[in-house]
Amino acid sequence: xxxxxxxxxxxxxxxxxxxxxxxxxxxxxxxxxxxxxxxxxxxxxxxxxxxxxxxxxxxxxxxxxxxxxxxxxxxxxxxxxxxxxxxxxxxxxxxxxxxxxxxxxxxxxxxxxxxxxxxxxxxxxxxxxxxxxxxxxxxxxxxxxxxxxxxxxxxxxxxxxxxxxxxxxxxxxxxxxxxxxxxxxxxxxxxxxxxxxxxxxxxxxxxxxxxxxxxxxxxxxxxxxxxxxxxxxxxxxxxxxxxxxxxxxxxxxxxxxxxxxxxxxxxxxxxxxxxxxxxxxxxxxxxxxxxxxxxxxxxxxxxxxxxxxxxxxxxxxxxxxxxx
Length: 324
Hints:
Layout: H1 7-29, H2 33-51, H3 58-65, H4 95-103, H5 114-117, H6 126-135, H7 144-158, H8 165-177, H9 188-195, H10 200-205, H11 214-258, H12 266-274, H13 281-288, H14 292-304, E1 308-310, E2 320-322
Antiparallel strand pairs: 1-2
């Protein structure tokens, strides 16, 4: 059966495809893709936390759960259990594959993931997942971007998990819609939803006044699909903006390093800070193998060159972020 879409959906779909292509191009041409991805991951975590109903500031959470590269796995939020975990297959998921994705696996080396076992489990309901899969049958032949929207909305309505259905549904829809995309760890759409202040929960879970009133059902579907496409567009354009700011910051770093001795650790310090949510003098000293006083002096130089800035307003255990 031929499916007809409104001009609004077609325009939003084209904008989303263009923005995603631009973001992928910027990532491919980025001068420091590792820093770009690190900044994007931090923004994704914050956006997914907002979608789950909490104000998540990665730097503040890191104070309690650690600053290791995978410290977010200890966060008490549903999205942390599947963040950065790809779907097991690029084909349309099955109940078994979804359970595998949600329940996870042991860390490399066969050690159990303490972060997940010590946190409230998602407790997926296989029967509800089956019901969700049946609800998705009519949409399976659509474009992946639109299927992702339907997946996210339907998952939130059917609620196959004990908690976190809205945020996990968005991650699932994005993982399917952007299969194989190295940019996202599951939160690109969430960034757009946060930036544009889109009430995804209301759009996804709202019911028409009469479920048998076809115009109402069609209108509801169009509303959440439009919101989804607009969110992906905004999220992808965020990547473009990050790359632009990173290029400007790297130019400032080059200029600052021209005035320093070749043995200076300024570049290494700035690049280390740029790849973290924030740093302390102790972290910098350990990373660069300097004394704490030497690291503090180097941080002061970086702040003077407007490469770093303090975010703790002079409090003890001062923390600094890159000015990207």
